[in-house]
Amino acid sequence: QVQLVESGGGLVQAGGSLRLSCAASGLTFDSFVMGWLRQGPGKEREFVAAISSSGGASYYADSVKGRFAISRDNARNTLYLQMNSLKAEDTAVYYCAVRYPSGSVFRTGSYSHWGQGTQVAVSS
């Protein structure tokens, strides 16, 4: 069974930083594109970032480009999201997910397996 467990969320002030982690099991981790997606209060779930199976290519939503960095450690089956220069509009539940079997990394419907989510709250 595929299991994705996020951690690292919390309350931070605007301008601060936070690093999210996602521990994966039940899949050949280094065979899949992985992504981070989020859902803010009163908003639809949206794409945040994705990374190729090897970690050699990364993709970002325009809203986070230059502030967030996605990475992965395939030896540890772990996905990360480093978030810097946080803004109030980044407040959301953040989910890690696996793209399977195919589809655009920018579309939430391309991700078949999701974690439980971790709450990020940014205060001004």
Commentary on this structure:
The protein has 124 residues and is mostly beta strands. It is built from no helices and eleven strands. Strands 2, 4, 5, 6, 9, 10 and 11 form a seven-stranded mixed sheet that branches. A hairpin with a 4-residue loop joins strand 7 and strand 8 (78-83). The model has no long low-confidence stretch (mean pLDDT 97).
Question: Can you give keywords for this protein?
Answer:
11 strands; 124 residues; mainly beta; four-stranded antiparallel beta sheet; 50% strand; seven-stranded mixed beta sheet; globular
Termini separation: 40 Å
Number of helices: 0
Share of helical residues: under 10%
- Evaluate the radius of gyration: 13 Å
**Low-confidence blocks of residues:** none
Q: What share of residues are in beta strands?
A: over 45%
The ordered H/E elements are: EEEEEEEEEEE
Structural class: mainly beta
Question: What is the makeup of the main sheet?
Answer: 7 strands, mixed
